[in-house]
């Protein structure tokens, strides 16, 4: 290469470097394309970045005859960009448009020559490309040398631009999520003095105090806690505990709310607490529901345990000869009052056949026989155990025991798991356009899963009658003609949590 050529190339390089040195970001790329176009004497100059799926590129900057061409995306396939990405460069001195008949832009502008090189991140991955195009033939050697010399600087600036854009987008997404969250999200410095750097707007909904009140008085966060819970929360924060803490606070309007703290401590190298971040969730509805459920279960258990056995004497043909009722037999007592002299077919028609078979086995074997059956009672279901033993020559003694309580507590662990899961889903809901109650939202989740009323009643520990009422309320509020329509619409409208 002659000295004159080298001098020209160095002059071009310095020309571009001087034109771009004061700039960064988008300004850098704008001045870069103009400077390269001038230095190489071409009509077009461009910088493109490779998108995530690697089949498309986006123009970062492009100029045509010193005018900005704007920014757009394009498919890599069928263009010189595909060759540049794979091979690291593409260079055509003439007739380039004929080599790429699918490249509409090149053919419309009758592009003759084209030179481009790939841009690589510090990791070595291709992140984009840049180059020039012209409507006349031109030797690519000098242009390629210039682009190669500038490539590291351009690549570094492109990578920095992408990192900054990604960071800004991430920060914007976090702030949007934080400010739309129903939970309080916060970050608080503990040293040298307590100060809230960030506290989300949800704090006003939960506590009644605006975020500014906590920034002005950071101690307000513990002052609003009830006296019984304040010291426990303060100690947990000071110790750096990450365990969830359930406590009560007094709102600005005097109302008491249950909250759940989840703290994440930040310690210095010496292990001292310097900051705390975390979330605070209003769990008043959940706590009150759990307390109500505990009271209901305790009351039900107490009543069920007070129910004694019932005794019957029946002749071999199924007639009642004697009856000793229990003290709290509910629906059974009503059905069996005045049964002496009546046949079991007339008193308990739904269970007459299985009980007659039980009696026959008892009389034929001379041994105790056992049967379990379920009976509806006041919109609920109760479970009974019938024990049949021989009593005289042609009679049996039928001992009827209510073991609904046993059945209830056998499935309570699974019901509690289902309820906890549903509670969590309902608490995460962000939309309730029909004004459904907490219980109705819970039942709507099960309806959408295809559960029948009896299955819902068993899962929630309530009567089928109560389930029927809630389902009717749901259909009415949603103006739905069927359970299926209500479930499908709830899923489609985002009312159900995953």
Computed structural class: alpha+beta
**pLDDT < 50 stretches:** 303-307, 327-331
Name of the CATH superfamily of the largest domain: GAF domain
Output the number of helix runs. Answer: 20
The shape, in one word, is: elongated
Radius of gyration equals 40 Å
CATH architecture of the largest domain: 2-Layer Sandwich
Number of strands: 17
Number of domains: 4
Task: State which percent range the strand residues make up.
Answer: 15-25%
The largest sheet, given as strand count, sense and whether it forms a barrel, is: 7 strands, antiparallel
Can you give the mean pLDDT? 84
- What's the CATH topology label of the largest domain? Beta-Lactamase
Account of the protein in words:
This protein is α+β, with helices and mostly antiparallel strands and 498 residues long. It has four domains: 3-169, GAF domain (Beta-Lactamase, 2-Layer Sandwich); 184-282, 2-Layer Sandwich (Beta-Lactamase), CATH 3.30.450; 304-407, Beta-Lactamase; 411-492, Arc Repressor Mutant, subunit A. Helices cover 47% and strands 24% of the residues. The protein has 20 helices and 17 strands. It has helices at 3-20, 25-40, 80-87, 96-99, 104-108, 141-180, 202-207, 211-216, 220-223, 227-238, 284-305, 331-336, 344-347, 352-365, 404-410, 412-427, 438-448, 453-460, 464-478, 483-492; strands spanning 44-50, 56-64, 67-68, 73-75, 89-92, 113-120, 126-134, 184-189, 195-199, 245-250, 256-267, 273-282, 310-315, 320-324, 369-377, 380-390, 395-402. Strands 1, 2, 3, 4, 5, 6 and 7 form a seven-stranded antiparallel sheet that branches. A hairpin with a 2-residue loop joins strand 2 (56-64) and strand 3. Residues 303-307 and 327-331 have low confidence and may be disordered.
């Amino acid at each position: 290469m002659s000295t004159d050529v080298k001098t020209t190339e160095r002059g071009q390089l310095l020309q571009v470097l001087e034109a771009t040195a004061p700039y960064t970001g988008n300004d850098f790329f704008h001045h870069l394309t103009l400077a390269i176009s001038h230095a190489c004497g071409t009509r077009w100059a461009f910088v493109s970045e490779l998108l995530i799926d690697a089949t498309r590129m986006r123009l970062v900057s492009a100029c045509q005859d010193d005018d900005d061409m704007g920014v757009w995306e394009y498919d890599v396939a069928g263009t010189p960009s595909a060759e540049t990405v794979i091979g690291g460069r593409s260079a055509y001195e003439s007739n380039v448009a004929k080599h790429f008949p699918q490249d509409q832009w090149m053919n419309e502008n009758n592009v003759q020559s084209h030179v481009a090189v790939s841009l690589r991140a510090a990791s070595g991955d291709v992140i984009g490309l840049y180059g020039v195009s012209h409507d006349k033939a031109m030797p690519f050697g000098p242009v390629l040398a210039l682009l190669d010399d500038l490539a590291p600087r351009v690549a570094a600036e492109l990578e920095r631009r992408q990192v900054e854009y990604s960071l800004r987008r991430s920060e914007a997404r976090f702030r949007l999520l934080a400010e739309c969250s129903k939970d309080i999200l916060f970050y608080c410095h503990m040293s040298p003095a307590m100060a809230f750097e960030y506290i989300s707007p949800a704090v006003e909904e939960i506590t009644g105090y605006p975020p500014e009140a906590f920034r002005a008085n950071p101690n307000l966060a513990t002052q609003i806690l009830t006296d019984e819970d304040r010291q426990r929360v303060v100690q947990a924060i000071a110790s750096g505990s990450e365990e969830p803490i359930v406590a009560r606070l007094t709102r600005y309007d005097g109302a008491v709310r249950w909250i759940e703290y989840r703290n994440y401590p930040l310690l210095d190298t010496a292990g001292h607490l310097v900051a705390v971040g975390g979330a605070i969730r209003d769990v008043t509805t959940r706590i009150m529901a759990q307390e109500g459920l505990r009271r209901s279960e305790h009351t039900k258990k107490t009543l069920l345990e007070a129910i004694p056995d019932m005794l019957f004497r029946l002749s071999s043909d199924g007639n009642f000869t004697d009856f000793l009722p229990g003290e709290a037999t509910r629906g059974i007592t009503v059905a069996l009052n005045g049964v002496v002299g009546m046949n079991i077919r007339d008193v308990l028609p739904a269970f007459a056949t299985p009980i007659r078979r039980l009696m026959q086995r008892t009389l034929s074997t001379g041994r105790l026989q056992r049967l379990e059956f379920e009976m509806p009672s006041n919109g609920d279901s109760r479970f009974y155990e019938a024990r049949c033993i021989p009593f005289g020559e042609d009679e049996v003694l039928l001992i009827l025991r209510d073991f609904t309580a046993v059945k209830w507590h056998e499935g309570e662990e699974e019901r509690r798991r289902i309820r906890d899961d549903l509670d969590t889903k309902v608490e995460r809901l962000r939309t309730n356009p029909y004004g459904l109650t907490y219980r109705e939202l819970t039942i709507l989740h099960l309806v959408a899963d295809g559960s029948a009323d009896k299955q819902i009643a068993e899962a929630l520990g309530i009567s089928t009658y109560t389930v029927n009422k809630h389902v009717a309320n749901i259909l009415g509020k949603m103006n739905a003609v069927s359970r299926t329509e209500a479930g499908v619409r709830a899923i489609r409208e985002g009312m159900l949590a995953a």
